[in-house]
Design brief:
Protein name (chains A, B): D-threo-3-hydroxyaspartate dehydratase
Distance between the termini of chain A: 31 Å
CATH architecture of the largest domain in chain A: Alpha-Beta Barrel
CATH superfamily of the largest domain in chain A: Alanine racemase
Family (chains A, B): Belongs to the DSD1 family.
Number of domains of chain A: 2
Structural class of chain A: alpha/beta
Largest sheet of chain A: 8 strands, parallel
CATH class of the largest domain in chain A: Alpha Beta
Largest interface: A-B, 55 and 54 residues
Oligomer: homodimer
CATH topology of the largest domain in chain A: TIM Barrel
GO molecular function (chains A, B): D-serine ammonia-lyase activity
Radius of gyration of chain A: 22 Å
Pfam family, one (chains A, B): Ala_racemase_N
Strand content of chain A: 15-25%
Order of helices and strands of chain A: EHEHEHEHEHEHEHEHEEHEEEHEHEE
Organism (chains A, B): Herbaspirillum frisingense
Helix content of chain A: 25-40%
Shape of chain A: elongated
Chain lengths: 343, 343
């Protein structure tokens, strides 16, 4: 069993280096610019886990010619044909994985669909390397009990394994069976038939994952440092200089069991002040208030200049608002870790 | 009457240059990094329109020492004292404007509050230059009829002018009366007593402003170019490679009269396909579907590889996801305009 983290969460080669040191094999990326970036940092085994389209094939080819063992994915005969045609025209054997739909969440071919074998044959007979199948049970984010998470993890596993078995039964190669999302990776009771697990946001965790039940607030590694810049005393508001530009507009906890607004307020050392949330956000202004009710002592409690930390709803979205991380080492020193921005 | 655009929308010196060429005098910024960036591009007259805190005064001082006619703002006696103390300690006369609350939206002192005169006296008697008053009726975004917009514009004007009159009646200087938001700037029936108007998002417009009623979809200058990467035929979905990383998580039209999901789908030339929206978004995947109902012909209508443009809910938020703009000139040529990222 190997583990291939999704580096779209951090977009940081420093974070990826720690993940590799901890045993990760290869990475998953969400854009070809990420593939270039992580390949330039010495990572060869890269899965680009967004469906390939013809216009991106020259970029994928260039990466392979530079020595990157890039894997691309497809879930349609149209794309599979385009990949095989382009590969043969350029004497390149692309490694292609077929994307499986295990929960109706987004993309992929359902394991029982005829298209699975059609795509498999098109790639294999078209001279490409049919490397395996992958799925992502994105709907696992909608659950919040161990039983439900275990059930969706099993659904994800079974769908992907069944797809692999069907391909193999049809005489097609399917060495890799790759599954994963942070909630299912942390909840699966069985990984029978699976060769690889993927997960992304586990690397930082966030309030959405806290609500799903796979981490505590103490596990959340990412926070936004902010300063109190003013008050509306009658309303019980402190105004901070972290608005949606800093936190992102992600309101992923809105429909979960605890709505954290735009983030959980902590003291500067990172200890949650559990009744205080960022309850509103403009571009560079956040409104800090009690979750419910009016704090009549807001001005004394959080004077102008007070520094606070805000835990994010969604680490991937909040991280993307910043050009770099200020990484705190165990010895208290701080390092600047750059983050990839754009496409 | 002068116009001072808020460059937080574009964060682009190329866009600001066009605004200046069209008559703008000075700019408004939302961070001190923006102030540095636009000052380095040759703009001297800069209003930093987020409440000043002590920790940022050295950065403000450095900008003034470099020749930037930086204006800073405050809405509290605590900050006013800190500014005056720091200014005197460094032999610097900061130009400070007092932020007025004209609609209960966010920050500011209400014109009738005693704090207005206290802050004014603190700055003036403390040796700073009391440059004026400013307000931003951010709640104007909540209205969508000409009558309501005109009313909130008048409320914004009256509050700011009244604050100026009170300061002047108390023997304090108040040369500038600065108001503005895109909806009010475009709706005001009277600007009596006002010396300066500010607005930001008007420079691109977006679907939120379309719903407010101050622009048409044709006026929207910003779009995200995307490609169809797959389908879920039974559901009537096309999957595109613009997810929330490209569109931002801003759902500003959710509570407006037309909910545009994550954006209005247009053909590659930018003509809206009005029944089609981005109805769901993951990090790099967008779900394109009919606003209502299932399009049985989705695969034929938008084959893999089809290029489309998506109009954003909120131009400030969508722009921030990109390192640069691809600006289309009247002659059809495309220029790369970089955008400032981070703080």
């Amino acid at each position: 069993m190997s583990f291939r983290p999704h580096v779209k969460t951090s977009k940081s080669t420093d974070v990826a280096a720690l993940q590799r040191a901890a045993g990760a094999r290869g990475v998953t990326v969400s854009t070809l610019l990420e593939a270039q970036h992580f390949h330039a940092a010495g990572i060869d085994d890269i899965l680009y886990a967004v469906g390939m389209v013809p216009a991106k094939l020259p970029q994928a080819l260039a990466l392979r010619r530079q020595g990157c063992a890039l894997k691309i994915i497809t879930d349609s005969l149209a794309s599979a044909r385009a990949i095989a045609d382009f590969g043969r025209a350029h004497d390149e054997v692309f490694e292609v994985w077929i994307e499986i739909d295990s929960d109706g969440h987004r993309s992929g071919i359902r394991p029982e669909q005829e298209a699975l074998l059609e795509v498999g044959r098109c790639l294999h007979e078209g001279g490409m390397r049919l490397g395996g199948v992958l799925t992502h049970a994105g709907s696992s984010y909608d659950y919040d009990t161990p039983e439900a998470l275990q059930a969706i993890a099993e659904q994800e596993r079974a769908a992907c394994v069944n797809a692999a078995l069907r391909l193999r039964a049809a005489g097609l190669p399917c060495p890799v069976v790759s599954i994963g999302s942070t909630p299912t990776a942390l909840s699966a009771a069985s990984l029978e038939g699976v060769t690889e697990v993927r997960a992304g946001v586990y690397v930082f965790f966030d309030l959405v994952m806290h609500n799903v039940g796979v981490c505590t607030q103490d596990d959340i590694a990412l926070s936004v440092l902010t300063t109190v810049i003013g008050h509306q005393e009658e309303k019980g508001w402190a105004i901070v200089d972290a608005g949606w530009m800093a936190m992102s507009r992600d309101r992923g906890t809105q429909k979960q069991k605890h709505d954290f607004g735009y983030g959980q307020v902590c003291d500067a050392a990172g200890t949650p002040l559990k009744d205080y949330l960022i309850t509103g956000a403009n571009q560079e202004h956040g409104i800090l208030s009690l979750r419910e009710g009016v704090d009549r002592d807001i001005v004394k409690r959080f004077p102008v200049g007070t520094q606070l930390r805000i835990l994010p709803n969604h680490a991937c979205a909040t991280g993307a608002q910043f050009p770099s991380y200020q990484a705190l080492a165990a010895d208290g020193t701080v390092q600047n870790w750059p983050r990839l921005h754009g496409w």
